[in-house]
């Protein structure tokens, strides 16, 4: 991508940057928006899954005879019935069966699926399936998995080329630079930290439908990556991509949990087998067993000079990834690589990261993509050093932040923002250094996440004969406001009001390819593709105007042309040119970042997402209960294409970050069962838990690679919440806690034991 291409000829007045209302917002509020669950398919059968109430078990038999006699039950498929030819699936390694065959490997893994005329009949049929099984000991912790002689979670045959196939380690990643062992430091801070197992908890449960067609198959899913799912289904069924259609309405929340296939391959196989469309809607409890964030344990050593200069960072971190790989390899690598040093200038860095299999719910992406787990120990180390050295935590961070344009990771682009400005803005907004009453404390933290390292986004813009426009884009709008931002870009470039623009997404048969919706890439990659498609339209309008008005010189500006001394809008030119035979102008644009084998992550980041979080809290020392008086998020966004949307993204990320910081975690028993499935027993922040004052600020220097200087802004708000809160707890009480979540019980115990 070229900055010059993205910036040329653009002013930032008008609609760019304005907080225009979200496209599709009213429908989401009044309940008329159609999610996957609202799509009606004729002749559809409803399905339910059959589970075992334990973490790991050997399946002896599955008796479906009684269930098949239940009224309305039309078909039942168990893993024991699957032909050997039925493939496994997965986004990185095809290690996951569509149903458990000989063993279940985590609590909630389905052993059978029942299809019936109604949801009730399917549930009754599922309850009547009898499974004869033997419960087996499982691997549920990092310690269990890495213990000598530990049972293997995965059959080595599933990864024959892996050097770690005879262990519970997916892989080890070793990153770094400099010479940690010979680095001399005046102070070495060394600690262990833990990060909890938690779920994405999207309000919309996982819902799917599959419909066989005369020439292929149509899959309905609230998937973040429609083209990725299309490829997985095509490979699983041995079909060409052209025969697999994925319809993906905007999801009702995703946060990474809906990036990759879960039950779509199972439904596709059964639908083709029985020749009927199928529908599956998981319960909220089942959704907890479908996806989660990786938990992590880190041991970290950090060296400092007496003046606060960082000397070295030495990190060993184990991510507990669950029973199947999913996208864990990429998550562990990217999260540890970027997070190990954070946004700081550190001359010597060594990172050892592992993905560790366990008999737990398979992990997948979640907002922050492995960074919150790593940023938690890295930033806490900064605060511990500040206390030891007697240096203000803000000043210590300032001392180690790189300047704009300074290389701080040897193989990566230089710092692309003025990050000291971000930190200072956060400190000022929280009132850093001002006196506080007893029992209150402030904390501040930074976070850095790499933007996308590879990508391929394509867009088509159709300027119709009446001067209105349709934008076709493969990105998913899962709450980040992509439809709105693309509307703003097209409105600015084509000189149209937003009401005259329609953005079409979510159908692989109708929109061009987009690699994925992740890594805060939507505004940058697809935004540039839309911008370039609009400028392709503008080029063609210029040619039309020159031809139609027989003019030698036509000057084009966003939405207008100057011809023969007269200024005409694009829609005037279209009306004049196409008034009789009709027609339209079709523009295309793309944005790509290619695979780079020389880089540890196979690609350099398109931008850095850097955030500062600052909090002010009050702690009741008798109960450990916290009250959040103020939370500030400051994001370096380059250019906020829609200021309201960026603020909402940061607010949402901050509240989500409070979840894993103070309350969210899976509770598991010694049989590997998750004991707090569902909204009653699993706590997430509500309005009763949110800060009394929530502030989102931005740093806009127009220095990003996206349209008009934008960078991605969607995940930063979650990165730095935990260490900021831990620092505030320490400031208020003197207790430094290194295990999340910071529950009242944990705080009380730190103060009274």
What does this molecule look like?
Helix 16 (643-662) links the parallel strand 25 and strand 26. The longest helix is centred in the C-terminal third of the chain and has 27 residues, at 522-548. The strands form six sheets. A seven-stranded mixed beta sheet has the order 3-5-1-12-9-10-11. Strands 7-15-14-13-8 form a five-stranded mixed beta sheet. It is globular. The model is unreliable at 1-13 (pLDDT under 50). It is built from 19 helices and 26 strands. Helix 10 packs parallel to helix 18 (721-733). It folds into three domains: 3-33 and 455-593, Aldehyde oxidase/xanthine dehydrogenase, molybdopterin binding domain (Aldehyde Oxidoreductase, domain 4, 2-Layer Sandwich), CATH 3.30.365; 36-136 and 205-250 and 257-288, Aldehyde oxidase/xanthine dehydrogenase, a/b hammerhead (Aldehyde Oxidoreductase, domain 3, Alpha-Beta Complex), CATH 3.90.1170.50; 295-452 and 599-752, Aldehyde oxidase/xanthine dehydrogenase, molybdopterin binding domain (Aldehyde Oxidoreductase, domain 4, 2-Layer Sandwich), CATH 3.30.365.10. Helices cover 27% and strands 24% of the residues. It has 753 residues and is of the alpha+beta class.
């Amino acid at each position: 991508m070229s900055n010059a291409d993205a910036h040329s000829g653009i002013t930032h007045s008008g609609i760019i940057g304005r907080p225009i209302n979200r496209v599709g917002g009213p429908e989401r509020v009044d309940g008329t928006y159609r999610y996957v669950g609202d799509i009606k398919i004729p002749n559809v059968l409803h399905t339910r899954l059959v589970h075992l109430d334990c973490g790991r078990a050997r399946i002896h038999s599955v008796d479906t005879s009684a269930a098949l006699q239940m009224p309305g039950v039309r078909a039942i498929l168990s893993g024991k019935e699957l032909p050997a030819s039925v493939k496994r699936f997965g986004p990185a390694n095809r290690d996951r069966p569509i149903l458990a065959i000989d063993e279940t490997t985590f609590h909630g893994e389905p052993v059978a699926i029942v299809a019936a005329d109604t949801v009730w009949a399917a549930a009754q049929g599922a309850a009547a399936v009898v499974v004869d099984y033997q419960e087996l000991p499982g691997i549920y912790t990092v310690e269990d998995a890495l213990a000598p002689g530990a049972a293997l979670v995965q059959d080595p045959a599933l990864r024959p080329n892996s050097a770690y196939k005879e262990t519970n380690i997916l892989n080890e990643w070793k990153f770094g630079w400099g010479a940690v062992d010979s680095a001399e430091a005046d102070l070495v801070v060394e600690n262990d930290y833990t990060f909890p197992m938690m779920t994405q908890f999207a309000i919309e449960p996982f819902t799917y439908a599959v419909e066989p067609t005369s020439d292929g198959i149509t899959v309905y899913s609230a998937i973040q990556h429609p083209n990725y799912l299309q490829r997985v289904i095509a490979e699983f069924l041995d079909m060409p991509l052209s025969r697999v259609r994925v319809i993906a309405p905007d999801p009702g929340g995703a946060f990474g949990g809906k990036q990759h296939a879960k039950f779509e391959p199972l439904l596709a196989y059964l639908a083709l087998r029985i020749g009927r469309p199928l529908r599956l809607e998981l319960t909220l409890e089942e959704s907890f067993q479908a996806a989660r964030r990786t938990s992590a344990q880190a041991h970290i050593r950090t060296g400092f000079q007496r003046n606060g200069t960082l000397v070295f960072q030495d990190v060993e971190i184990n991510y507990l990834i669950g029973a199947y790989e999913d996208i864990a390899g990429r998550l562990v690598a990217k999260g540890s690589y970027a997070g190990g040093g954070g946004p700081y200038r550190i001359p010597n860095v060594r990172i050892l990261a592992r993905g560790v299999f366990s008999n737990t719910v398979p992990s997948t992406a979640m907002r922050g993509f492995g960074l919150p787990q790593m940023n938690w120990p890295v930033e806490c180390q900064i605060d511990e050093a500040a206390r030891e050295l007697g240096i203000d935590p803000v000043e210590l961070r300032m001392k180690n932040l790189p300047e704009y344009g300074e290389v701080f990771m040897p193989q990566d682009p230089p710092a692309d923002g003025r990050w000291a400005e971000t930190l200072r803005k956060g400190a000022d907004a929280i009132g850093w250094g001002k006196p506080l009453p007893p029992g209150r404390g402030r904390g501040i933290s930074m976070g850095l996440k790499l933007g996308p390292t590879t990508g391929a986004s394509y867009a088509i813009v159709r300027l119709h004969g009446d001067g209105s426009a349709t934008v076709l884009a493969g990105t998913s709008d899962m709450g980040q406001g992509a439809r709105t931002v693309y509307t703003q870009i097209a409105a600015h470039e084509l000189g149209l009001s937003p009401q005259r623009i329609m953005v079409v997404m979510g159908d692989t048969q109708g929109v061009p390819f987009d690699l994925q919706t992740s890594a805060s890439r939507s505004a940058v990659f697809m935004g540039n593709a839309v911008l370039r498609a609009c400028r392709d339209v503008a080029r063609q309008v210029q040619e039309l105007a020159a031809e139609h008005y027989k003019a030698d010189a036509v000057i084009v500006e966003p939405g207008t042309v100057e011809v023969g001394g007269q200024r005409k809008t694009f829609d005037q030119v279209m009306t004049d040119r196409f008034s009789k035979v009709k027609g339209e102008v079709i523009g295309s644009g793309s944005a790509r970042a290619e695979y780079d084998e020389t880089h540890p992550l196979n690609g350099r980041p398109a931008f850095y997402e850097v955030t500062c979080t600052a909090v002010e809290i009050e702690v009741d020392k008798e109960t450990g209960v916290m009250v959040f008086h103020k939370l500030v998020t400051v994001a370096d966004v380059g250019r906020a294409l829609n200021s309201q949307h960026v603020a909402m993204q940061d607010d949402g990320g901050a509240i989500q970050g409070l979840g894993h910081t103070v309350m969210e975690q899976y509770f598991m028993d010694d049989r590997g069962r998750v004991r707090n499935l569902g909204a009653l027993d699993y706590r997430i922040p509500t309005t009763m838990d949110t800060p009394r004052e929530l502030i989102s600020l931005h740093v806009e220097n127009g220095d990003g690679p996206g349209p008009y200087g934008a960078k991605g802004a969607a995940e930063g708000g979650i990165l730095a919440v935990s260490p900021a809160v831990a620092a505030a707890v320490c400031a208020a009480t003197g207790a430094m806690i290194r295990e999340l979540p910071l529950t009242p019980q944990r705080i009380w115990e730190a103060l009274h034991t």
